[in-house]
Design a protein that fits this description.
Layout lengths: L1 H7 L8 E8 L12 E9 L7 H10 L6 E2 L4 H10 L8 E3 L6 H10 L2 E3 L3 H13 L5 E4 L5 H6 L2 E5 L5 H6 L2 E3 L6 H48 L9 H24 L1 H9 L1 H21 L2
Parallel strand pairs: 3-5, 4-5, 6-7, 7-8
Antiparallel strand pairs: 1-2
Length: 296
């Protein structure tokens, strides 16, 4: 009956949820639909797409994040929604209820993008397969059936409003506003922190280069200078003095590096003006070189 209806509508409502109202003069026996039924109405149910859904998916695509949709709904319905939000490979969908072998499910993990009729065990199996293939997997969910997959993933993200207590306990992160686009801010902040840590390491290494060079040159030149000027080599500054100076001169450097790592205000401006950061690192290295050279 529905195939005839879809044909009559030229497939306009294909992939959408449908509620069919029919009438029959015969009773329903053993849950079997009578043959003489009359179609009264078809109610089309369409999911509402968030306004920022396309922008969010586009951002993840630009960042090299590959998205997969794992749902307990009909695979074709999920594929239709994915097409509306312009998800890549939206037409690669599979109904996991037809795959009874775990090996087939594992093979489908990389092959398809949309997974429909997925049970909790198969959700967890998909996550385990992706992790075994070398992917860092993040999983979002809100129901009890999502808990095993949330727990298995590298980063489980539960919904704070509609999410169940079980899913929240299994997750690592909770979206308090139930908005998928909020993950964009989390990704940006995480990558900014990682970038700042690298900059802090570069900052500390560049400041230590001057001291290492000064110490190396002093060790090599001290005997020659002592012999040339007739100075007793025992009078040359001992290593203890260098250690004290190192502690004094590094206090501000370490504090500045810590602030670069932890303060978004500073990190944003340093990243916006990279030449300023390089100039600061070079200047600090030069100053450290001359500071420590004076003690030798």
């Amino acid at each position: 009956l529905m195939e005839e209806y879809n044909t009559a509508c030229d497939g306009i409502f294909e992939g959408l949820r449908k509620l069919v109202l029919v009438q029959s003069n015969q009773p329903i026996v053993n849950c079997q639909v009578p043959d003489d039924i009359t179609l009264l109405a078809v109610i089309i149910i369409k999911d509402k797409i968030r306004k920022n859904a396309k922008e969010t998916l586009r951002y993840f695509k630009e960042q090299g994040v590959k998205l997969k949709v794992i749902s307990g709904d009909n695979a074709k319905t999920v594929s239709t929604i994915a097409r509306e939000v312009e998800l890549d490979d939206w037409d690669k969908y599979v109904d996991l209820s037809k795959l009874n072998d775990d090996k087939q499910v594992c093979e489908a993990a990389e092959k398809y993008t949309i997974f429909g009729r997925v049970t909790p065990d198969k959700k967890r199996l998909l996550i385990q397969t992706l992790k075994a293939n070398g992917h860092t997997v993040g999983m979002t969910g809100d129901g009890v059936n999502d808990a095993p997959a949330l727990k298995t993933s590298d980063i489980g993200c539960a919904m704070g409003i509609v999410g169940t207590d079980v899913s929240k306990e299994a997750a690592d992160v909770i979206l308090t506003d139930d908005n998928f686009s909020t993950i964009v801010s989390a990704v940006e902040e995480g990558r900014r922190i990682y970038d700042n840590i690298l900059k802090a390491i570069q900052f500390l290494l560049s400041s230590n280069v001057g001291e290492i060079v000064a110490l190396f040159v002093a060790i090599l030149a001290a005997p020659l200078l002592a012999k040339a000027f007739g100075i007793d080599i025992q009078l040359i500054t001992p290593p203890k003095r260098f250690i004290e100076n190192n502690c004094k001169t590094h206090s501000l450097n370490d504090l500045s590096a810590y602030s670069i790592t932890t303060t978004s205000f500073v990190s944003t401006r340093i990243r916006a003006v990279p030449w300023a950061y390089k100039a600061l690192s070079s200047l600090n290295s030069i100053i450290a070189f001359f500071q420590n050279s004076l003690y030798f």
